[in-house]
Amino acid sequence: MQGDRRAAALEAVLMVVDEPVSAAELAAALDLPQHEVEELLGTLAAQYDADGRGFELRPVAGGWRFYSRAEFADLVSGYVLEGQTARLTQAALETLAVIAYRQPVARSRVAAIRGVNVDSVVRTLVTRGLVEEVGTDPESGAILYQTTSYFLERLGIGSVAELPQLSPHLPGLDELGAIDGAYGGLAG
Predict the structure, then answer these.
(1) HEC per residue, the chain
(2) What separation in angstroms does the CA of 71 have from each of 47, 74, 75, 135, 186?
(3) Which of 42, 52, 130, 185 could form a disulfide with 102 if both were Cys (CB 3.0 to 4.6 A apart)?
(4) What is the pTM of this model?
(5) Are residues 135 and 159 in the same domain?
(6) What's the rounded Cα separation, in Å, for the pair 80 and 61?
(7) d(CA 86, CA 130)
(8) Tens of pLDDT along 43-85?
(9) 65 and 127 in one domain?
(10) Residues 95 and 159 in one domain
C-alpha cells in the first residue's frame, strides 16, 4: 500500500472500533509491519492536532482510538446525553474508587471498607462495563473484581498506575491497609 493509502486504511479501521486497539492488532488487520503502523499513528495524531480538528487520535488503555477534543466536551456531552441519566451515584463512585485502588478485591472487602452492602452497586458497575470479575479468592472462594479497559478509557489513562496517589493523610488510610492488606492495592 502507498503511504496515503496506508493512512486512509488505518483511519477507516479506527473509525469503526468501539474500544482502543493496539498497534499490533492494527498492523495485523492492515497487513503492515507494526513499526509502520506505530509511525502512521504518531503522524496522524500530530496532523490532527496541527489541523485543529474537532477530534484527536490518542493512545489510551493499551491501544489507539479517536476521541472528540476536550474543548468540545460540553457540546458533545450535551448532545450525546440529552435526556439520559449517565452519571454514577455517589455510592457507585465510592465503590468504583475502592475497587480501582484495591483490585483485585472481593465484594466483602469493598463492603467492609465502605461500611455498607455493595452488592447492587457492584452489579451496576459490572453492567456498565466499568468493573469485571477476574477470578476467585483462593482462601474464601469469593469472586474478585477489577476495573476494565473501558474504565481506563473513560478516565483517559493507560493503566491504574496512572491514578492519583492517595494521600497518606487521608483519615483511616492505615485501617484500609490493615483490612485489605492481603490484596496489595495501589494506595500510596
Answers:
(1) CCHHHHHHHHHHHHHHCCCCECHHHHHHHHCCCHHHHHHHHHHHHHHHHHHCCCEEEEEECCEEEEEECHHHHHHHHHHHHCCCCCCCCHHHHHHHHHHHHHCCEEHHHHHHHHCCCCHHHHHHHHHCCCEEEEEECCCCCCEEEEECHHHHHHHCCCCHHHCCCCCCCCCCHHHHHHHHHHHCCCCC
(2) 18, 8, 9, 40, 31
(3) 185
(4) 0.52
(5) yes
(6) 23
(7) 13
(8) 999 999 999 999 999 999 899 999 889 898 888 877 766 544 5
(9) no
(10) yes
- Is a pLDDT exceeding 60 seen at residue 161? yes
Span 1-37, pLDDT tens digits? 665 899 999 999 998 887 899 999 999 999 999 999 9
Range of the domain at 103: 90-183
CATH number, position 7: 1.10.10.10
**Phi, psi for 183 (deg, rounded to 5):** -105, -5
Domain boundary among 79, 110, 134: 79
C-alpha cell at 93: 463512585
Alpha-carbon separation of residue 97 from 11, 25, 90, 188 (angstroms): 34, 31, 11, 14
User: Is the same domain home to 70 and 132?
Assistant: no
Q: How confident is the model at residue 171, as a pLDDT?
A: 58
- Are residue 115 and residue 177 in the same domain, yes or no? yes
